[in-house]
Amino acid sequence: MYKRNSQREVIEAVERLLPREPRLLPCTLLFQMLNSAVSLEASTDCRNGFEIRIGRQLDQATVTDLLIPFQGYATETQYDIGCVKRILKSFYTNYTCSDASVFIKVADLIEELLAELASDVDLEVNSFLALAEMSLAASLENHTNSDGMYRAIDIYLDKHRFLTELEKEEVCRVLDCQKMSPEACEHAARNERLPLRVVVQVLFTEQLKLRETVVQEVVVHNTQERFGKDGEEEAEENEGKLSRTKEGLRVEMERMNSKVMELERECGKMRKEMANGYGSSHKLEKRRKVSMWGEIKRKFGCMSNVHDCSSQVKKKKMHARHG
User: Which end of the chain is more exposed for a tag (fewer CB within 10 A), N or C?
Assistant: First the structure.
């Protein structure tokens, strides 16, 4: 007991003597001292001092650094999520640099941490979402790719299969389908763990991206073919066509959104029927699921495979060239 008290006094004295300026000490060393302060039950001021110093240079941290073991018995997870939140708060509060790459680096770091923590079956939805939202805030809307967030969500849903459909939708609300890569979209379109609403959004987003790509390539091709005659007039005309096409795509997206809402109402009716005992059989549930996907394809004509969409792009381009 005396030895432990002595060690606690030492770590508290070290914290008071450390300089406040950032980047004078390695971030990993600061994490090691923070872990010692937590395990020795040092004062709150001591732990806060280490957390503030870490927050000022968080872009130098690694995922391993952030996996801080929780000291105690009553906890929802084996790692100290609250400590990570305080460090992130310190980062936002004290960082004054205008370099956006630092924030993107921290956003990537938190996404990697989320993927690591997602496999913990005791991690509650609220804690997962809190970290996910902090990662989105760190990106300052400059984060051009959502694949890391999708990976973390997929792992979380895989390890928490007991979640209800509404809870799954709540987890997926931090996912921006428009910022997912084609590979991630293809995986999501086949992912049975995702809520139906999210899968439909992914399919719509990918289909609209492909249509816009086709229109742009056809316009460029036609302009190049006729450039010798009326190049400038043709380019202006094609730009007008492209603008009208984009407006048409926007209107189509709104129409699709209304159909999504209609589909959600139908799914709600199916859930009520299943809850009333009509869907207790596994075979009946499977048949309804297949029927539901058939209804989606019939109503929206969504592509389930990016390669199929790519083949249609090629056909449209060939048709434009022959025309």
Answer: N
Task: Work out the pLDDT band at 108, boundaries 50, 70, 90.
Answer: confident
Report the C-alpha gap between 97 and 279 in whole angstroms. Answer: 57
Are 148 and 183 in contact by the 8 Å Cβ rule? The answer is: no
Distance, CA of 53 to CA of 321 (rounded, Å): 62
Q: Is the pLDDT score of 229 beyond 70? A: no
Q: State the pLDDT at residue 107.
A: 85
Cα–Cα distance, 234 to 248 (Å, whole number): 21
Q: 120 near 78, Cβ under 8 Å? A: yes
- Token couple for 265: 């109402």
User: Which tokens is 91 given?
Assistant: 């980062």
Question: What is the 3-class SS of the chain, one letter each residue?
Answer: CHHHHHHHHHHHHHHHHCCCCCCCCCHHHHHHHHHHHHHCCCCHHHHHHHHHHHHCCHHHCCHHHHCCECCCCCCCCCECHHHHHHHHHHHHHHCCCCCHHHHHHHHHHHHHHHHHHCCCCCCCHHHHHHHHHHHHHHHCCCCCCCHHHHHHHHHHHHHCCCCCHHHHHHHHCCCCHHHCCHHHHHHHHCCCCCCHHHHHHHHHHHHHHHHHHHHHHHHHHHHHHCHHHHHHHHHHHHHHHHHHHHHHHHHHHHHHHHHHHHHHHHHHHHHHHHHHHHCCCHHHHHHHHHHHHHHHHHHHCCCCCHHHHHHHHHHHHHHHHHC
CB–CB of 210/309 below 8 Å?
A: yes
Q: Nearest 5°: phi and psi at 69?
A: -60, 140
Do 149 and 111 touch, CB atoms closer than 8 A?
A: yes
Angstrom distance (rounded) from CA 321 to CA 323: 5
Instruction: Check pLDDT > 50 for residue 311.
Output: no
Q: At what angle do helices 196-225 and 227-273 cross, to 10 degrees?
A: 170
* Euclidean distance between CA atoms 195 and 157, whole angstroms: 10
Residues 168 and 159: their CA atoms lie apart, in Å, by: 12
